[in-house]
Each structure stands twice: as C-alpha cells, then as structure tokens.
Write a structure and sequence with these properties.
mainly alpha, 84% helix, 479 residues
Length: 479
C-alpha cells in the first residue's frame, strides 16, 4: 500500500477481492446453518442466535470506538501506535465491566436464551469478538480491504470446523459458541502481523481526538446493531425461540445480498476519510459505490419472490416452512439496506458521526414502536414489515443528508435501474419455469436458481456499458 493509505486504494479491485471472500463465507455459513438448524431444531438454533445477538449488542461501545479508530487511522499523519493502544485500553476496561454484569445477570440470561451456561458463554464470546472486529477495521483504514475480508474468511473456515467438532462432541447449541470463539481467537494474530504497528500508551490529545468521534459512533453502532437485530430481540420477547429460529433461517438465505455493499461501503468510508482529510473530491467514489451496491441484492429479492417456500423448505426442512413469508420481506429489507449503507458510510467518512447517529436513532425508534405493535397484531411477519418501513426511512435520510453535502453524487445512477430491469426479467423467466416443475429436491431448486442467475447476468451485461467497462478495468488491474 502506498503512503496515501486508503486514499490510493482501488475500490473496484479491493471490493472484488472482498466479495470473493464473502462468497466463500456465504457457502460455509449456509452449510453450517443447514446442518445446525436440522440437528439442533428451531428452539435451540434460535436460542443460540438470541444469545449471540445479545453479545453483539453489548459490544457496541467497543464497535463505536473501533469506528473512531478506523476514521483517525485512515487520516493523513495518523498516530497509529497510540490509536492501537487506545483500543487495547478500551477492551480491558470493557471486559472488566462485563464480568461484573454477568455475575449479576447470569441467571436471567440463562432463562432468556435457554442455555444453562449462558453467562460463561456470553463472556467467552464477548472477549474474543472485541479483540477481533475493531482491530480488523484498522486493516481497512490502511487500505487492505481485501485482506480484511479474507482474514474473516479464514475465521469462517475455522469456525465451521470447530463448531461441527464441539456439537458432535455433545456440547449442543453451546458448541456453536465455543467454535466461534476459538476460531476468532486463532485469527487475531493475523491482524497484528499485517498491521505491523506496536501499541503505544495514548496521549491526551489522541484520546481526545478519538473521543470527539467515538461519543457519537458508540451510540450509532449500538443503535445500528440493535436495529439490525431488533427483530430477533422483539421475537424473543413477544413470541418464542422457535419463531426466532424461523426468522434466522430466512435471514441466513438473504445474507449474500449485502456482500458488495458491505465490502465496498467499508472501503468507501476509509477512502472518503483519507481524501477528505487531504481536501480531495469524493463524489465519484460514492456514486460508483452506490451504482454497484445492490448488484446481488436485486436478483436475490426477485428470486425470493419467485421461490421463497422452495428455498426455505429445501434448505432447512419442512418444519421451517413458516419462514417462507419472512424471506420475501427480509430480501426487500436487504435491498434497501444495500443502498442506504454507502450513504451512511460516506457520512462517517466525512467526519459527520453526530448526523449518522441521529439518523440511526430515528430509524431505531420507528422500528421498535412499529415492530412491537405489528408483532402483537400479526405475529413474526409484523416485525419484518416494521423493519422494511424503518430501513426505507433510513435510506431516504442518509441519501438526502449526503447529497446535501456532496451534491455531485448521483442518487439514482443508471446502473441501478438496469439491475432492476434485469431482476424483473429474471423473475419472469423463473416463474414460468417453476410452473412446469415441482421444487422438491436440491437439483430442481439449483436448476431454477442457475436459470435465474444466468438470465440476470446476461440481461445486465447486455444492458450496461458501465458494468462491462468496470469489469474490464478491474480484471486488468488484477492481472
């Protein structure tokens, strides 16, 4: 990486590297989800993800500090050793606080999630995850977007193997937690090998600079994760862990929709931060990211419309059939999220954490109020409807806020419309094909998915000059 760090990063090439890693993660995650969902059943499967969601919500202060560290690490003349030292200090303080909290709330946690040893498992997961995710972000801040994703892919490989081992050894759903924690611990050294930065005791100035950003990003990350997993928390509160299992099964099928948006958005934040700190233009990078962010989400939404029940039942079994209706709503949510994410990351890169926090707070409040009301009225589908409405609001607020500050950004690039047209063509072809076959096996389902993917890809390549030009440019860089 050059001295410009993230500013000189090729977003196209690094995103390609990152998405390829995410695809491997998707395959591993899907295989694991299918195996564990069938072996453990909806209640235990849902119970584990309920516990993991609580861990991921609790570690949000560290995630927020990690975002602040990523922002400052990506800037010109960053004090990188002091930033690393600040993260380590924050982790130690957080682990001490959580230890006290678990000692007090361990019994409640066990009753809520269905795990007898929920307290120790929570502590193990929390400790390992906070030494992984915030430090991973520093790789992106240094311009190593593809490396960051592939290290996470290595963690996924180890996670699946270790989880299978623990579950087979008789640890049940808790074995999924032990496997994730062990794999996370094993990949932490990789991060520090490539960062090549030694932690230094932070100065008051560095701590003050981080806090100036983190006081907003901490709240924003807490709100953001709560928003993303609020559905599970509401379902666990108002319904049963079985409903959580239906939801999680459907959600797992939609995860690949976010790959391009997530990878490119993470790199965009660091690049915008670096360019903005040097007074350079950022509009082109933002527009290009928005153009490609939904390239996977569009066909997945139309595919869910055409094959929702076949996808759920074939993958997870007939007992997960109630999750089919949730799949369509979650696919629409992911499509909206792929568009709002680059704008939200752009606001972070422009050093506007307070604005991002206010947007996240507004959408969380909307999702909570509407989600509880609709779940009580309509059951699990109600919480998905609320999430779609809230994400629509978030998209509008993020897009308009960023466009007001960078008016050169195109909110509705041509490539996005071309993707929707290609997705509609795919939907028509798959629907016609489905009328002539019964989706009762992996072979039939795979054939329909392949037909849909081929239709989408061919139509989009024919329509889009920008896509063909971008692919050619990225492939030439990779050679």
């Amino acid at each position: 990486m050059s001295d410009d760090g993230a500013g000189s990063m090729s977003l196209g090439l690094e995103t390609l590297k990152g998405v390829s890693g995410k695809m491997v993660q998707a395959v591993l995650g899907f295989v694991g989800a299918v195996v564990f969902a069938r072996v453990l059943g909806p209640a235990n499967f849902g119970g584990f993800y309920l516990l993991l969601t609580l861990v991921q919500v609790t570690d949000r202060p560290l995630a927020g500090i990690g975002v602040a560290a990523k922002k400052r690490f990506s800037e010109a003349d960053a004090r990188k050793g002091e930033i690393l030292g600040s993260l380590l200090l924050a982790n130690l303080l957080a682990i001490g606080s959580i230890t006290v909290g678990i000692a007090v709330a361990g019994n409640w946690l066990g009753g809520f999630t269905g795990f007898d040893a929920a307290g120790p498992l929570f502590m193990i997961l929390f400790t390992t995850l906070v030494f992984f995710h915030p430090f991973q972000q520093l790789l992106v801040a240094d311009g190593y977007l593809g490396l960051e994703t592939w290290n996470d892919t290595l963690r996924s490989v180890l996670t699946l193997g270790l989880q299978l081992g623990f579950v087979a050894a008789g640890f049940g759903a808790a074995g999924m937690g032990y496997g994730l924690a062990a794999a996370t611990l094993l990949t932490v050294p990789v991060i520090h090998y490539f960062l090549r930065v030694q932690p230094v005791v932070p100065s008051v100035e560095t701590l003050g600079s981080l806090w100036e950003y983190a006081r907003y990003s901490i709240v924003a990350r807490f709100i953001g994760k709560t928003f993303k997993r609020l559905d599970l928390l509401v379902l666990g509160w108002l319904t049963t862990t079985t409903a959580v299992g239906y939801y999680e099964a459907a959600f797992k099928l939609t995860v690949p929709a976010m790959f391009v948006s997530y990878v490119a958005g993470s790199g965009l934040m660091a690049k915008v931060s670096n360019l903005e700190s040097r007074g350079e233009a950022v509009a082109t990078d933002i527009t290009n990211t928005v153009s490609f962010a939904s390239i996977l989400a569009v066909p997945m939404f139309f595919g869910a419309l055409a094959l929702s029940e076949g996808l759920i039942v074939t993958a997870f079994g007939a007992e997960y059939r109630p999750g089919a209706i949730l799949l369509v709503g979650l696919a629409l949510y992911q499509l909206l999220a792929t568009q709002s994410n680059p704008y939200r990351q752009g606001l972070d890169g422009l050093d506007l954490p307070k604005l991002g926090m206010m947007i996240d707070l507004t959408t969380l409040a909307l999702n909570l109020v509407v989600g509880v009301a609709l779940t009580l009225q309509y059951g699990p589908i109600g919480v998905v409807i609320a999430t779609v409405l809230a994400e629509s609001t978030r998209y509008v607020l993020c897009a308009l806020s960023l466009n007001r500050r960078v008016p050169e950004v195109s909110l509705f690039p041509r490539l996005l419309f071309e993707q929707v047209f290609a997705g509609a063509a795919m939907f028509a072809v798959v629907t016609l094909a489905r009328m002539n076959v019964q989706v009762d096996s992996w072979f039939v389902l795979g054939s329909l998915v392949a037909v849909g993917a081929a239709t989408y890809g061919v139509v989009l390549l024919v329509l889009s000059d920008q896509l063909r030009l971008t692919l050619s440019s990225v492939l030439s860089e990779a050679m």
